[in-house]
Amino acid sequence: MSPKSFLLSEELHDYLVAHGSAPDEVLSELIADTAALGPVARMQIAPEQAALLTILTRMVDARRAVEVGTFTGASALAIARGLGPEGRLLCCDVSEEWTAIARRAWARAGVADRIELRIAPAADTLGALPPEPTLDLAFIDADKGGYRSYWDELVPRMRPGGVLLVDNTLWSGRVLDPDDPDPDTIAIRSFNDHVAADDRVEAVLLPISDGLTLCLRR
Ligand SMILES: C[S@@+](CC[C@H](N)C(=O)[O-])C[C@H]1O[C@@H](n2cnc3c(N)ncnc32)[C@H](O)[C@@H]1O
């Protein structure tokens, strides 16, 4: 199995990455720098998710975007690249250490001026945002127990036609086990049920990497 997808063999994952937009030098360096951190590196999004984030950001012509869970900055780099020079991305994280790596990559890629990073619990950052529906794109990829509250803060702030993406929604397939006592599994299962019942959005759960829920705000 590929370390980036419990659904694909390593060979098939490599093939898929090689037949999409390839990671450029900055993203490749960031993947290597993150791998050097050890096992936490598995929190980084997969390269094909980075390509998808850039494409979707461009497709919705996003100017205002929010990310919850930045880590070493790969997903933010992908979104910022899709925004264009006038666009702005607000990043939420609690780690100075990991996001220092992110800041260096954003500077190397020439997108640092599009990104504002707030080091604080994301619930506080999101709760303080203006209530108007002005966001074009949002990406949730932080602590799983917080997903429901991040969703509830973000959905009303999305403009009609805006896109929400949520990572790890298949949780290595553990979502299928109703007896899994792990709090993160319980949180993801409950979050997925919440999204499926939310008629403010159209939703599809894509089997890309660890599961990526893609939603369009009605
Ligand atoms: C899975 S990683 C994000 C990976 C990132 N999207 C990427 O592309 O590399 C989760 C991140 O969420 C952050 N995090 C955890 N709890 C948080 C909270 N309450 N508020 C904001 N960020 C949080 C962690 O510090 C970590 O960097």
Explain what this protein looks like in three dimensions.
By secondary structure, the chain is an alpha/beta fold. The chain has a single domain (10-217), classed as Rossmann fold (3-Layer(aba) Sandwich). The chain has eight helices and seven strands. It has helices at residues 10-18, 25-35, 47-59, 74-83, 96-109, 122-127, 147-154, 183-196, and strands spanning 64-68, 88-93, 115-119, 135-140, 158-167, 201-206, 212-217. Strands 3-2-1-4-5-7-6 form a seven-stranded mixed β-sheet, sandwiched between helices. Helix 5 (96-109) links the parallel strand 2 (88-93) and strand 3. Helix 2 (25-35) packs antiparallel against helix 5. The longest helix is centred in the middle third of the chain and has 14 residues, at 96-109. The protein is globular, with a radius of gyration of 16 Å. The model has no long low-confidence stretch (mean pLDDT 97). The structure holds S-adenosylmethionine (SAM).
